[in-house]
Amino acid sequence: DAPLLEVEDLFVEFHTRDGVAKVLNGVSYHVDAGETLAVLGESGSGKSVTAQAIMGILDVPPAVVRSGAIRFRGEDLLKVSDGRRTELRGQGLAMVFQDALSALNPVFTVGFQIEEQLRVRLGMSRKDARKRAVELLDLVRIPNAARRVRQYPHEFSGGMRQRAMIAMSLALDPELLIADEPTTALDVTVQAQIMDLLKELQVERKMGLILITHDLGVVAEVADRIAVMYAGKIVEHADAVSLYRNPGHPYTAALLESLPRLDLKGTELKTIRGLPPSLLAIPPGCPFHPRCPMAEDRCRTEVPGDHRLGLGRTSKCHFAEELVGRV
Ligand code: SF4
Ligand code: MG
């Protein structure tokens, strides 16, 4: 069986005034129904761009898809007709964004915004759409949903707004939900609640879930697999347990070391030295070499390919086997 969603060897460029930015340089990942994939990386690593390519919301014309495939249930969204593409995306895919306040329209009630989708896309009556909107707000654990449905976005707290966004994204019953930094704007307690909610919904509805984040901490408990991105490539891909226990790439190790840990209270957090590279001038060899504490001469010239580490794990580091202790 084909995976629910499969991105294969995707190359995307941005044609800017300053030159061609190589934003995605051969990204491959997949997600199955009932599974949560976390896509992790610093800003500019290409995690949002991959999601935008999947959803068909890349900026045109600066963004150019050079090559690759995005298959949803086996059909390549980059190759099917415009009509079929719209149909596949409309029925199957939904996205939740970081900033619920700008994604919701301030002029309309939360209920109206959910009901509009149901009426336009599913042809529901006003009355049925209202009933369904209340159910959806209830589903995302918004208290007093029957009253809340008549309120405006500004009457909701940040966490409630994000819940309302999630309710809206579930209105058409998607098979795959992509959440791009869904909790970044929220405080830590609310972050955890929203993550738990997404996970619960994913399990209950047997959806595929892609969680995009720069924070390894927030996805620790909910991800089945993790894809770590750097400079438009997936540098490590592993099941969550193995990745946390025993990172297979120095960049993943650095991300883990920069996490606050309860058991190491009071010790200083390590930050990753240097900055991510400009995508207009990605360093030769391993793109991480200017920041890597393990870099050797060959790292400056030889591009590391995927090293297979067993259990479906891969790492793009010349020394991946040594890192995980499997020489
Ligand atoms: Fe570091 Fe070299 Fe591995 Fe790149 S290939 S991550 S520079 S050790
Ligand atoms: Mg982003």
Characterization of the model:
33% of the residues lie in helices and 24% in strands. It has helices at 47-55, 82-92, 100-103, 110-122, 126-139, 145-148, 158-170, 188-205, 216-219, 240-245, 250-257, 320-323; strands at 5-16, 19-31, 36-40, 63-72, 75-76, 93-96, 176-180, 208-213, 225-230, 233-239, 307-310, 313-315. The strands form 2 sheets. Strands 6-7-8-3-9-10-12-11 form an 8-stranded mixed beta sheet, sandwiched between helices. Strands 2-1-4-5 form a 4-stranded antiparallel beta sheet, with helices on one face. Strand 11 (307-310) and strand 12 form a beta hairpin. Helix 5 crosses helix 7 (158-170) and helix 7 runs parallel beside helix 8 (188-205). The longest helix has 18 residues, at 188-205. The two termini are 34 Å apart. The protein binds iron/sulfur cluster and magnesium ion. Iron/sulfur cluster is lined by residues 249-250, 286, 288-289, 292, 294-295, 299, 304, 317-319. It is found in: Cell membrane. This is Methionine ABC transporter ATP-binding protein. One of its GO terms (cellular component) is plasma membrane.
Keywords:
ATP binding, binds iron/sulfur cluster, single chain, ATP hydrolysis activity, 12 strands, nucleotide-binding, four-stranded antiparallel beta sheet, alpha/beta, 327 residues, 12 helices, binds magnesium ion, transport, eight-stranded mixed beta sheet, Methionine ABC transporter ATP-binding protein
